[in-house]
C-alpha cells in the first residue's frame, strides 16, 4: 500500500512568532541597505545638478534623480510595512509570554494550594489548644516544684508575726536609750585603749633632777631615775 499511495509525510511545525519576527527583521535590514545605496546615488545626482548648467544635460540628471527617488520611496514604504509587521509580532509575542507566565503562576498556586491542604490535615486547632493547656499545666507544676525546693528548713511555720514586730520595737527602744557622743551611738563609737596606769594605780615616774628632801645628805639624794646619787667628791678622787 505504501508503494502504491506513498508514505504520509510528517507535517512541519508552523513557524513560531520568534522565527517570523527574525525573518521580517532580516528583510527590513535588506531594504535598509538598498535605501542607503539610493541615498548615496541621490547625493551624487544633487552635486551634478548643482554643477550642471540649465539645459538638456541638467534635465537628464534630474530625470535619473527622480527615478532613484521613486525607488527610494517604494523601499521606504516596504520598510514601514515590515516595521508594522514586526511591531505586531512583538505585541503577539508579549501577549503569548504573558499567558505562559499566567499558566505557570496558576500551576504554582495550585501546587501550593494542594500542599497547604495536606499540611492543614495534619494540624488541627483542637490539638493546638490541647497542647497550650498542657503547657500551662506543666508550667504551674514547675512553679510548685520551685517553691517547694526553695522552702526554708530553719524557720518554723508557727511563728507569730506580731511577736516578731514586738521584739523589733523593743530592740529599737533599747537602742534609743543608749547615751550618744556627738550624735554617734555608743555601739558605733571606736573602742578606746584602756588606761593601764589608772587600773594598776602606779605612781608617776619623776622627771628631771629630783629635789633632795630636808634631812637627807648628798649620799641619800636620788638621781633622775630614782636611784641613789653618787657624791661628786668620790667621783673626782
From TrEMBL:
Keywords: Coiled coil
Source organism, top-level taxon: Eukaryota
Gene Ontology cellular component terms for the protein in this record: multivesicular body
Keyword Coiled coil among record annotations: yes
Coiled-coil stretches noted in the UniProt entry, renumbered to this chain: 99-148
Biased composition (Basic and acidic residues): 20-30
Protein name according to UniProt: Snf7 family
Biological source species: Dillenia turbinata
Amino acid at each position: 500500500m505504501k508503494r502504491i499511495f506513498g508514505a504520509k509525510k510528517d507535517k512541519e511545525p508552523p513557524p513560531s512568532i520568534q522565527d517570523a519576527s527574525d525573518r521580517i527583521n532580516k528583510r527590513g535590514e535588506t531594504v535598509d541597505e538598498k535605501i542607503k545605496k539610493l541615498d548615496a546615488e541621490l547625493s551624487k545626482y544633487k552635486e551634478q545638478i548643482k554643477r550642471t548648467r540649465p539645459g538638456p544635460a541638467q534635465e537628464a540628471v534630474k530625470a535619473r534623480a527622480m527615478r532613484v527617488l521613486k525607488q527610494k520611496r517604494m523601499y521606504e514604504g516596504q520598510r514601514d510595512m515590515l516595521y508594522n509587521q514586526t511591531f505586531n509580532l512583538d505585541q503577539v509575542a508579549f501577549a503569548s509570554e504573558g499567558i505562559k507566565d499566567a499558566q505557570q503562576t496558576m500551576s504554582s498556586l495550585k501546587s501550593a494550594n494542594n500542599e497547604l491542604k495536606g499540611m492543614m490535615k495534619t494540624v488541627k486547632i483542637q490539638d493546638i489548644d490541647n497542647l497550650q493547656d498542657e503547657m500551662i499545666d506543666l508550667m504551674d507544676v514547675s512553679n510548685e516544684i520551685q517553691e517547694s525546693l526553695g522552702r526554708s528548713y530553719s524557720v518554723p511555720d508557727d511563728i507569730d508575726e506580731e511577736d516578731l514586730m514586738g521584739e523589733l520595737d523593743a530592740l529599737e527602744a533599747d537602742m534609743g536609750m543608749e547615751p550618744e557622743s556627738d550624735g554617734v551611738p555608743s555601739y558605733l563609737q571606736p573602742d578606746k585603749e584602756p588606761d593601764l596606769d589608772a587600773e594598776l594605780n602606779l605612781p608617776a615616774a619623776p622627771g628631771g633632777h629630783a629635789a633632795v628632801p630636808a634631812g637627807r645628805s648628798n649620799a641619800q639624794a636620788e638621781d633622775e631615775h630614782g636611784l641613789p646619787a653618787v657624791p661628786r667628791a668620790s667621783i673626782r678622787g
